[in-house]
Known about the structure:
The protein is of the alpha+beta class.
Amino acid sequence: xxxxxxxxxxxxxxxxxxxxxxxxxxAQEPLRGSVSxxxxxxxxxxxxxxxxxxxxxxxxxxxxTVSQVLDSTISMEGDEFFAExxxxxxxxxxxxxxxxxxxxxxxxxxxxxxxLGRMATLDLSFDYLITxxxxxxxxxxxxxxxxxxVKETAKIVAQDVGYTVGGxxxxxxxxxxxxxxxxxxxxxxxxxxxxxAIGGVIxxxxxxIRKGGDVLIAPGDQIKVKINTSVDLPVYKEEALRKEExxxxxxxxxxxxxxxxxxxxGEANTMTLSLLISNLSDKTLSGFDMILExxxxxxxxxxIFGDTKLMFRQVKPGDRLIANVSFTxxxxxxxxxxxxxxxxxxxxxTKISVDNAYKKLSKRTKKRNERVRNSxxxxxxxxxxxxxxxxx
Length: 392
């Protein structure tokens, strides 16, 4: 081997050793932006969480609403959808799943409506949650619109009895109409009884061939999802879940109560706020400068069906008043802000979170509001005790 070849191999070996040394040096140095160098992840974690951990227990129930319509006549098994948590989920130490958390779901089973008035059913499954801070939490959850078998039978029997009695009443009226009241009196009522018997048979036949209804779950309808796994979750700090607000110097607006109510037509779509307004600012407020805005940016003016006193009153500097104001909204489960605008510029001068105020309400008030919201959902899935468990 010549001298030149030996030198070339020696230089090549030195180059390889140099590259390996650089690789080892870079491997020991932390990556730019990593937790070990900046600690930004730990800072964000400390802002959001208390440092405590709670367990989301198996068989816990989470209130949700779907993001799109699920229809037993149109949807297909395997269809994916998203839902949203409509109320904070608490552990013993605080909130572990905040309102607004998204849930990924799938339609597991669709059963068509059947004879004898048996309803169609939807079985839904959920596999993970996406929290507002971007965390993905694997879960196993189930929800079914299927009634408890005993209650479903009782419901069908009650309806069929109604059909039968209704048919009997129609048959009795037909007997009187065609044979006359005199015939009924002369026969001591036998003609009416016979007509009622015939009508009863007709009614029973109608109940036997009648099909049950379809299932439609729409955005705004509240569903209850049962959890089938136990998951350890960090506890949120209360201040981390507070919604941002806009305040104006000298103007204090407190929301002392939030009621979910039905409008005069029986629709559960009305939110009534009890307000305490203290105006020590340089602005004059009016009900016409006030709206309710949801987290999608949709704006709602005060409802004419509620207390209209504040709508037609000016709140001048130095005024202090207590008043109620109602809004008809499209979905009671969304986040809302009460907004007052500057009459001259049209810019918001104050924006108060209804959700912040709602967290301070008593459990009794929250349960009442939940009953009102549930009344919008269809009867076949609005009550928790109507659900049957489906374990994975």
